[in-house]
Known about the structure:
- The chain has 143 residues and is α+β, with helices and mostly antiparallel strands.
- It has helices spanning 35-41, 88-104; strands at residues 48-51, 55-59, 67-73, 111-114, 130-134.
- The protein has one domain: HIT family, subunit A.
- Strands 1-2-3-5-4 form a five-stranded antiparallel beta sheet, with helices on one face.
- A hairpin with a 3-residue loop joins strand 1 (48-51) and strand 2 (55-59).
- The termini are far apart.
- The structure holds adenosine monophosphate and zinc ion.
- The site of zinc ion has 6 residues, from helix 1.
Amino acid sequence: MPRLPAPAPPGLAPSARRSFPAPAAMYTGLAMSCLFCKIVEGSIPSTAVYQDELCYAFADINPQAPVHVLIVPRRHIDSMTSAGESDKALLGHLLWAAAEIARAKGLARGYRAVLNTGPDGGQTVDHLHVHLLGGRPLTWPPG
Ligand code: AMP
Ligand code: ZN
């Protein structure tokens, strides 16, 4: 099973020294102004939790639970609404990464993986992301 890198200072995860596709070559137009594209690129700082060739995971700046990690695809996708059939493997990869991070964080009692989508779904950043929340009992239904 792949090992996760240890938590590291913003933008300095050990695996950051590995070679990943240059973000600037991966997005154009509207995505150039996207907050999470800038975090993936490293021009806006973040606290790295995990990364690989397809995704980047970092601590949410306004955590709603003791563990609150955002897992985003390196490639800009607005939301689940705009994910296409060719994105199926990537969507599965994001959930796999969430499970790996949960295991590494010791969330043996459980956790929640959430994809807020669109205005009614409460999405505020238009770059698809999985929220991984854990470390406390989570209530249901959500607001
Ligand atoms: P959503 O509302 O589902 O689109 O989630 C967006 C999430 O991004 C929120 O939980 C914010 O707290 C988080 N967020 C916004 N800006 C930053 C940032 N600069 N670094 C880390 N997380 C952020
Ligand atoms: Zn983006």
